[in-house]
Design brief:
Length: 672
Amino acid sequence: MNETSSSFISDNKQLQFKKFITKSLVAGVFGFGLMISAGVGVIPEITENSNFWFTVGLLTSFVMWFSAREFFIRAWIALKRHDTTGDTLIVVAIVGAWLYSMFVVFLPSFIPPLAQPVYFDMVAIIICLVNLVLAFEFHVNNKVSHAIERLTGLQTKTAVVIREGIATQVSTQDIAIGETLRVVPGEIIAVDGEIVEGETTIDESMLIGESSLEKKSPGDTVIAGSINKTESFLFISRRIAKDTLLSQIIAMLRRPQSSKPAVSSLVDKTVVFFVPGVMIISLITFVLWASLGITFGVNEPMSYAIVSALTVLVIAYPGAFKQALPIANSVAIDRAANSGILFRHVETLQETSKLDLIVLDKTGTITQGKPDVVAVHTAENIDVTELLQAAASVNVQSEHPLARAIVLNAKEQDIALNEIAQFNAISGKGVSAYIGENIISVGNDMLMKDQCVDIEQFAESIETLTTNGVTPVYVARNKQLLGIIGLADPIKADSKAAVHRFIRKGLLVVMLSGDNKDTTHAIATQVGITQVIAPVLPEHKVEHIEKLKRDGLAVAVVSNDVPALVSAQVGFALASASEQAFESADINLMRGSLCGVADAIDLSCITSDNIRKTMLAAFIYNSIGLPLAAGIFYPLLGVLLPPIYAGIAMALASFIIINHANRLPAFKQADG
Ligand code: ADP
Ligand code: MG
């Protein structure tokens, strides 16, 4: 975003804020002016000059139109949805007060003389206070859009694309998937992709909110909005336009936070029934005062009935704490976005705070997902080249990280690959294909078993490899074992710290892998995980997750596997995840680190804790305020809360509640 449009937005907001203040001032000057003049007696009594009071009534309706028409509109919109909001309370209160007052002006003889005061001043003062609250709320909400502006500023306008061997500057919108882009030092990366040439240091701090300089080399992912620090490099675009992580975060932040959560928890139910409940209390208050007022020695029951009923409506306004929830949620989502965490739905925040168990993939989640050939053992009379040639030739067509590593290794050793035919990928087990007359199988022990290949001769080497966290891949030709290739996938630097954080939060941690049991166990032990499910065939992953859910656990999954992500209550996809995984996850992370998952969980716990406390504050306020406003203490103490005080209490409580909802305590991002 350029200077002008961003300042336009803030100008616009400034204007909005001023509008609230103006409305508040107009209503305030009128209301307080009227109250004071009546108090000191510079204006006539109703009985003395009803024309004067009729004019005052008209002026009040002008104030209602000028300063409160939005309340009417919003209350009407809500009503059409069969909903009630804080606006409904205010509208009922001011319309009720105004109608009663006009009635008194026109037909004073119908009302007992003692119950005659009019409430035009109160109507205006309430409007003044509510506008003040709204101005404050607006101000608080606006701070939220800072992340949008900051992130929008990271979207580049142009980028350099290599087309037909020539470097061309193009508009970022014109970049297609699969194009090669060149990035020089100091430049912001335009789209998401994968480095193909060159090594550099990338600064992602603008996206993830903490200083982060990462060395990146071919095969590593880069994301739009990060800054190239040291060297030029080439990368291939993988996610473009609105699909980049950055664009998705911005889109999420722009979405209005009005999505109505399902009525499930007690809090939700309270919110839904709160306003109608208050109106019923107000009505009961009115009826009780009107009928029983005399019994309590009140001379003007009608007047008391009206005042108490209206005071109930006014005092409950902030308790229409519907505002507190969206504010707390947007603050959290904004904070998350600043830390490179994208919550795709507002509801996910709450769910994430209630997790019991977290299922982690091994490859690419706990490990880097970049295996490397570390050992080759051949059978008798077979040489290493022959083994690698067979394995690599068959695996050229496989997308599996192990396959890529084997092919890369063969290429590095300048081993020429053979033509293959009838390539066949066996899910969760490996691959097979023909080289000439010979059938070659490359895969795990299950594949060998299926094909009746005897692997006994390597039992000892296998044990050494697996207990060290190395994955053995068997290579067989015509059911004769040629040898094994050991591949090691290094564990990410902070996986152990992240697992430690999960455990300390009281989460159960389970590792799920298609890899063999011993290797998986070895890796699990290294990061401090005790529960392992392995080997799991891809088609059985979901069954395991469903089973955990049936046990009554709230399950999160960090994976690259779409069905697994979908079946979990909360699915996390790391920055390195595939496009589809990204789409299916509930939370996307800009970082490839599991610490981002721990941060997301911490943040949602803090948020729901904040919401709980806000709700509690609103509950306490209402439990004291409502009876006070209704006049329950009158028979005991002889005091009735004047409506103006109720208005002031309402405004103060609103400030406190909104401020509390907005002030999300910092969450700890560091590990340990
Ligand atoms: P994961 O994603 O946990 O690694 P997969 O289901 O993708 O699980 O793979 C399970 C196992 O199958 C791998 O650990 C490997 O032993 C074997 N395998 C799958 N595809 C290949 C392949 N192309 N080459 C060699 N081994 C393979
Ligand atoms: Mg896999």
